[in-house]
Amino acid sequence: MKRIWVFIGFILIVGVGILTFLVVDKSRVISELEQENKQNQEETQVQIQALTDEISALNTTISTKESELISLTKNYDDSLILLDEKDISIADLTEQVDTLLAEAEVTEDEMLMDYASMMQLESLGIKDIDMIVDDLRARTELIGFEGVVGGTMRFGSIFVINDQWVYARFDDGHIMGYGLYKYKVEANMDLTWEVIDSRLDD
After folding, report:
1. Residue 75 has pLDDT above 70, yes or no
2. What angle do CA 34, 37, 39 make, to 5 degrees?
3. What distance in Å separates the CA atoms of residue 194 and residue 199, rounded to the nearest whole number?
4. Which among 188, 8, 198, 166 is positioned nearest to 90, based on CA atoms?
5. What stretch of H or E contains 171?
6. Do residues 182 and 193 make contact, with C-beta atoms less than 8 angstroms apart?
7. pLDDT score, position 108
8. Is beta strand 154-160 parallel, antiparallel or unpaired with respect to 176-185?
9. Do the strands 191-200 and 176-185 form a parallel or antiparallel pair, or are they unpaired?
10. How far apart are CA 115 and CA 124, in angstroms?
11. Does residue 190 contact residue 100 with C-beta atoms inside 8 Å?
């Protein structure tokens, strides 16, 4: 009988030990799970913050690009307005020259410039206005239009307006047009030219 109680006591002690181990192990597992969960939450928060920062940076970039696009669009619109105004100004100037020539009945290659312009050209070494006329007449590439029906574009009447501007008419025997040209007398008395406007007659 005594042995039975000893055996039962042993069993109880072993059982209590096992239960204690299980309780302690359960607490350890729970603690590890809680720690792992906390670490995962912290990592998730870091990732969320990183994504938030990236989104914020992208929004800033988009806003900057939108501002640049608005600025470029405005500059483009302003450029179109300036081009329209320049086109109108050139057309008005060309029309005024045509009107003046018609009213004055100016003959071919006749000089229209004022005294101050003549003095300016003389100071640059241009004493004969035909130097300007002949130089432009040789530069048919400035006409900017090809002849038709086998014709060749050539300058016709050329009018030196002042020490910077020349008005000239051109044709190929079939179609006619006119141009406004700007010239500059270089140090060696060579002339450089810029086409301001060149158009065919309507």
Report:
1. no
2. 110
3. 15
4. 198
5. strand 165-171
6. yes
7. 45
8. unpaired
9. antiparallel
10. 15
11. no
